[in-house]
């Protein structure tokens, strides 16, 4: 994201509507101050008193610095939907932003990050927030079957699996793959987040038992059109979620409102799938206030 696009993102973010000038000043201070540290990560405030280790170039982490919650609707949903001892599955954890948010609610987590260098950053964030005991952190990819895949490892939040026979000039690494049903062994998350850069079809193919279980109440999944890279039809994947008993929805955090999209997908961003709308609406309405960038959300 270029400087102009970043500035627009900051100015338009819902948590910055009443603090645009302060947010831009904060952004400029971060850009200047972080570079004086010669690339060393800095512990910066996150939601509910948590912190994240960040440095320039870490897209997801720095987005949280600028705006409090980089993916506002989905991250706010995690904060409002989870309760102490709920189980949250974070598939494609990256440095752990979603997992750390879930931990601030008291939830337990099982989190997967396949790229070893990113996984080490994830562990650093768990240790920083003293959250390690809440999280089963796994240095694995999630797919249909156990095995191995070659991962691109130099693209930050867009690291992804290589197709069979594909050549890539940058950095790659062979990583283990596991199936979600096998790992969970009957334990059912209340909420799953899937952000695996076009590998979603493989993830769900190894999660049939989990997906069909009534205790799984919601799924946040990235469907941005990139599945075509692997020959996957994301519309078919979307339909499979509807057939499994979920409704496509969008969350409005400021109103604590879940909007039924009546089978459609949002034009941009992730898709929120909810099994029981009435229960989910009551859950977010009754959640305690969450503190983000000085705002009670």
Summarize the structure.
The chain is of the alpha/beta class and 297 residues long. It has one domain (3-296): Rossmann fold (3-Layer(aba) Sandwich), CATH 3.40.50.150.
Can you walk through the features of this model?
With 297 residues, the chain is an alpha/beta fold. It has a single domain, classed as Vaccinia Virus protein VP39 (Rossmann fold). The protein has 11 helices and 15 strands. The protein has an 8-stranded mixed beta sheet with strand order 5-4-3-9-10-13-11-12, covered by helices on one side. A 3-stranded mixed beta sheet has the order 6-8-7. Strands 1-2 form a two-stranded antiparallel sheet. The longest helix has 16 residues. The mean pLDDT is 90.
Main β sheet profile: 8 strands, mixed
How many domains in all?
Answer: 1
Low-confidence spans:
none
Q: Write down the overall geometry.
A: globular
* CATH-defined architecture: 3-Layer(aba) Sandwich
The CATH superfamily is Vaccinia Virus protein VP39
Counting DSSP E segments of at least 2 residues, the number of strands comes to: 15
């Amino acid at each position: 994201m270029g400087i102009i696009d970043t500035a627009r993102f900051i100015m338009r973010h819902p948590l910055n509507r009443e603090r645009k000038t302060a947010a831009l000043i904060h952004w400029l201070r971060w850009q200047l101050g972080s570079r004086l540290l010669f690339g060393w990560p800095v512990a910066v405030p996150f939601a509910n008193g948590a912190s994240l280790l960040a440095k320039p170039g870490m897209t997801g982490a720095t987005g949280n610095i600028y705006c409090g919650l980089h993916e506002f609707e989905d991250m706010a949903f995690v904060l409002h939907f989870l309760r102490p001892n709920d189980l949250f599955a974070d598939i494609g954890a990256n440095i752990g932003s979603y997992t750390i948010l879930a931990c601030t609610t008291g939830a337990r987590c099982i989190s997967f990050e396949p790229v070893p260098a990113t996984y080490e950053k994830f562990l650093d964030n768990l240790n920083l927030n003293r959250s390690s005991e809440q999280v089963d952190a796994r240095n694995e990819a999630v797919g249909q079957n156990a095995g191995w895949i070659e991962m691109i490892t130099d693209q930050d939040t867009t690291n992804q699996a290589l197709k069979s026979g594909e050549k890539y000039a940058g950095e790659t690494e062979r990583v283990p793959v596991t199936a979600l049903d096998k790992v969970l062994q009957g334990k059912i998350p209340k909420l799953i987040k899937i952000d695996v850069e076009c590998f979603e079809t493989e993830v769900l193919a190894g999660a049939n038992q989990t997906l069909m279980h009534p205790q799984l109440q919601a799924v946040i999944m990235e469907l941005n059109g990139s599945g075509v890279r692997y020959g996957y039809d994301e519309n078919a994947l979307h339909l499979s979620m509807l057939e499994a008993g979920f409704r496509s929805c969008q969350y409005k955090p400021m109103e604590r409102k879940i909007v039924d999209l009546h089978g459609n997908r949002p034009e941009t961003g992730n898709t929120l799938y909810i099994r029981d709308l009435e229960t989910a609406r009551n859950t977010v309405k009754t959640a305690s206030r969450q503190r983000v960038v000085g705002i009670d959300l």
